Amino acid sequence: MNLNREQTLILLCTNLNLSRDASLKIARLLIEDLDYQFIVSEAKRQGVAELVYANISGFSEKNTYPPDSCPNSNKHIGIHSIEISRYSIRSRKY
Fold it and tell me: How far apart, in Å, are the Cα atoms of 29 and each of 15, 36, 69, 79?
């Protein structure tokens, strides 16, 4: 099964307890240019949006990866967390 980067990120972020390996993979994905509209819509469609959001938004605070594994990762993770939050909030129906 071939997954694109966005699908891989969703799959990795559906774990309740991230392994070190999963954390490293997520950190590497988060520094790439991802389609966050797709991530949010696909995560919602699969019913895992809150879990994906929780794992990504809390990722920089967890700091579970070696800093040298992903250059500027904290900066990028913060930006991507905000981007996901913006799409998630904008598309919520109350």
Answer: 16, 12, 12, 13
pTM of structure: 0.68
Tens of pLDDT along 26-50? 888 888 888 888 888 898 899 888 8
The encoded tokens of residue 49 equal 């949006």
Sign, CA torsion 79/81/84/88: negative
Q: How many Å from the N-terminal Cα to the C-terminal Cα in the chain?
A: 36
Q: Delimit the domains of the chain by residue range.
A: 5-90
Residues in the chain: 94
